[in-house]
Amino acid sequence: MTDFPATALPFDADEILARLMRWSACESPTFDAAAVNRMMDMAARDLALLGARIDRIPGRMGLGDCVRARFPHPAGDAAPGILVLAHLDTVHPVGTLAKLPIRREGNKCYGPGIQDMKGGTVLAVEAMRHIIAAGMATHLPVTFLLTPDEEIGSPSTRDVIEAEAARNRFVLVPEPARPDGGVVTGRYAIARFNLKTTGRPSHAGARLGEGRSAIREMAKQIVAIEEMTTEDCTFSVGVIHGGQWVNCVSTTCEAESLSMAKRQEDLDAGVQRMLALRSGANDVTLEVTRGVTRPVWEPDAKGMALYAQARTIANSIGFDIAHQSSGGGSDGNFTGAMGVTTLDGLGVQGALAHTLEEHVLIDSLVPRAKLLAGLMTTLA
Q1: Which of 46, 261, 295, 357 is the most buried (most CB within 10 A)?
Q2: Torsion-angle region of residue 305: left (phi > 0), alpha (psi -120 to 50) or beta?
Q3: Is 253:240 a contact under the CB 8 Å cutoff?
Q4: Is the distance from CB of 170 to CB of 379 less than 8 angstroms?
């Protein structure tokens, strides 16, 4: 008899994969609120069928809704419990299915958002489904919070995430597992910036010399920004928009930059460097404004104790999990920085998230679902 009965529940990879393929086929890019809400509808229905009470939290900033699903528990809604924190937005625009069709090839299954992070979210749903079907009880109430904007830093939902986390004792984040199958006990600090250069227009063919190109100045700034990267703090530019007509000297150009650091003080120094940038061209202005920020989440004793419990459960299933602090922000940054006991990276194993080769490893589905079920039924 195992010390973790939930890990012996009859999880089936094909059943898990069927739900996951259906979810992945529902495209839900962050900036398409209607598409995200279609995914929220699907998830809400699946959770309601398991007996959860569904609350729909309206979106703002032009982004999608949140879904909060509370499972009945004798302790009632007010008792601190377990929060499963997941996002259902993806970076893949509607139409990606034509280039990244849902398909199973050997031990891999491909699809938009299938690894980041619909896979892990489905594992958590399947864990609850089997726990409920077996008539097992969880020591603590379980709540799911599904959010629509993690891929852009959670600007519209940070307050909801932090409010819900404050009501709970533990936060489980089924973001993708590390490449070695490990979990995440801390995350680096991240800051985003919006940049805008403004020049002077002219006809590029007839009066080129009269213009001052916003694109030219932005190009110089991008090179300078990325050359600020050190081991302590990285800088990258991932979005740029400028100009409309090739025969016009561009008046404006806009870009978005991201900085990441392992320590908050290094990120703070990086923020000051970004905000101190100035235009190097006459008659062209540069404006830098700070966007959303994810605070550093540093490992602490409570988080490491939660990791130790997860590792013990994993060992009982037949595999091991390492832990690490990780780059690539998640909503775990917020809850971990608050001091709420958080464990991240509990989702599927796979690779190449955010690309047209994104996939999960099918043989990871059952062990990882068992790990989540073990945690949900033993945390107290």
Answers
A1: 261
A2: alpha
A3: yes
A4: yes
Q: Which domain holds residue 338?
A: 5-188+296-378
Structure confidence by residue, pLDDT tens digits, 260-319: 999 999 999 999 999 999 999 989 999 999 999 899 999 999 999 999 999 999 999 999
Quote the CA–CA distance of 291 and 256 in Å, as a whole number.
Answer: 9
> Would you call the peptide bond into 117 cis, given omega within 30 degrees of 0 as the criterion?
yes
What SS3 class is residue 69?
A: strand
Q: What are phi and psi of 311, to 5 degrees?
A: -65, -40
Name residues whose C-beta falls within 8 Å of residue 92's C-beta, 6 or more positions apart in sequence. Answer: 27, 29, 100, 112, 113, 354, 358
- How do 142-147 and 82-87 pair as beta strands? parallel
Nearest CA to 331 out of 97, 158, 164 is that of 158
The partner residues of 359 in beta bridges, in order of sequence, read 110, 351
Say whether both 103 and 177 belong to one domain.
yes
Residues 199 and 221 in one domain: yes
Whether the model clears a pTM of 0.70, i.e. scores above it, the answer is: yes
Beta bridge partners of 186: 325
287 phi and psi angles, rounded to 5 deg:
-120, 125
| Among 236, 266, 294, residue at a domain's last position | 294
CB-based contact 373:6 (threshold 8 Å): yes
pLDDT at 10: 98
| Residue ranges of the chain with per-residue pLDDT less than 50 | 1
What residue type is 137 in one-letter code?
A: A
Same domain, 180 and 275: no
CA distances from 86 to 28, 145, 223 (A): 14, 6, 35
Neighbours of 23 (CB within 10 A): 23
- Left, alpha or beta for 44 (phi > 0: left; psi -120 to 50: alpha)? alpha
CB atoms within 10 A of CB 337: 19
3-state secondary structure of 37: helix
Query: Which residues, 6 or more positions from 152, have their beta carbon under 8 angstroms from its beta carbon?
Result: 30, 31, 89, 292
How far apart, in whole angstroms, are the C-alpha atoms of residue 304 and residue 308? 6
| Max CA distance (Å), the chain | 84
